[in-house]
Write a structure and sequence with these properties.
With 176 residues, the protein is α/β, with parallel strands linked by helices. The protein is 38% helix and 22% strand.
């Protein structure tokens, strides 16, 4: 598949733009190709900021879960969507993170993502399937409840799964 065809078929390019911040082997922040980074992966959009106390508490927890899932080759990527007040704060905070980031300069894109996913507060982790569809807007609970990723990608149960296969009718008899 050509690079243009891969970009066209990857929903994350439309969502996040063509370039994400990533780190090279030395830890230096560089530009990465969104299509290549997210191809075939479930993506967590991590809305957070350096100044936010609860974020600073959750980020190490999330990093540990992320690194564990990476070591197990789970098709999972996280993209930091910063609510920091300036680029220096973004760079300092992103320096502590092992995943990718929306470039700080993409403020309009950050605002549209916040609106699209109805982000009311931070930290918020939105889990999006490789098809671009939202799996859960409460990825924070999904990761906290399942830090090893046993139930990854944390798809909600279907109605059939919730209801089961047996029901009680008006006479109190079990029916299928």
């Amino acid at each position: 598949m050509s690079a243009n065809a891969e970009s066209a078929s990857n929903p994350f390019v439309a969502l996040l733009g063509a370039k994400l911040k990533t780190k090279d082997a030395s830890g230096t922040i560089v530009d990465g190709d969104t299509a290549a980074i997210t191809a075939g992966k479930t993506v967590g959009l991590y809305f957070s900021a350096h100044w936010c106390g609860p974020c600073r508490g959750f980020t190490p927890q999330l990093a540990e879960a992320y690194m564990g899932m990476q070591s197990m080759n789970k098709p999972f990527e996280i993209v930091f969507v910063s609510s920091d007040k300036d680029e220096d704060a973004f760079n300092e905070y992103y320096g502590e993170m092992p995943w990718k980031a929306l470039p700080y300069t993409e403020r309009d894109l950050k605002a549209s993502l916040s609106k699209k996913y109805k982000v009311q507060g931070i930290p918020t982790l939105v889990i999006v399937g490789e098809d671009g569809k939202t799996i859960t807007k409460d990825g924070r609970s999904a990761v906290a409840d399942d830090p090893t990723g046993k139930n990854f990608p944390w798809n909600p149960p279907s109605i059939k799964d919730c209801l089961g296969t047996e029901f009680v009718n008006g006479d109190g008899k079990t029916v299928t």
